[in-house]
Amino acid sequence: MLEFEKPVAKKTWLDLAPMIDVVFLLLIFFMLTSIYAKPMMPVSLPESETSIIQEEPEITLGISSDGSLSLNGQNIAIDQLYDQLSPLLLGRLEKNIRLIADKRIEFGLVISVMDIAKQAGADNIAVVTEKKVSYEQ
Predict the structure, then answer these.
(1) Which residues fall within 8 angstroms of residue 18, CB to CB, at 6 or more apart?
(2) How many domains is the chain partitioned into structurally?
(3) CA angle, corner 114, sides to 108 and 59, nearest 5?
(4) Domain residues for 72?
(5) Which of 1, 31, 68, 86 has the fewest CB atoms found within 10 Å of its own CB?
(6) Which 8-state DSSP code applies to residue 128?
(7) What is the CATH number of the domain that holds 62?
(8) pLDDT in tens, the chain (137 residues)
(9) 101 contacts 18 by C-beta, under 8 angstroms
(10) 32 lies in some domain
(11) Is residue 20 assigned to a domain?
């Protein structure tokens, strides 16, 4: 009688190695890019028709709607602002500061923060606004 070989069992599972490689590459990508993301405090910016887009300076001051301050994303008290801002400005060629202030805060607080920044050595304080949509053509 004629004998035949037994059929070889086919591979019935998926190879997960390529999928795991892709997942790890995505994980590394997001971990590396999240390092450069700057945390921002939620503020409602005022609008201006004459606002222009400038390059982002390295020093950012923020004033939230409840009056709390942040310097480069770190919460600080107003009495600590001069002590923490002046070393950041020391030795810089361009002493630019970007001020992000909520439109609902008191104007006196904005002036106080700007005054402290000037005393700490800031040459230029850019107030961040949103572009106002004009419906007149």
Answers:
(1) none
(2) 1
(3) 135
(4) 47-131
(5) 1
(6) P
(7) 3.30.420.270
(8) 677 787 777 777 778 899 999 999 999 998 888 777 666 667 777 777 777 665 544 788 999 888 889 888 888 998 988 998 888 888 777 888 888 888 888 889 989 999 999 998 888 888 888 877 766 65
(9) no
(10) no
(11) no
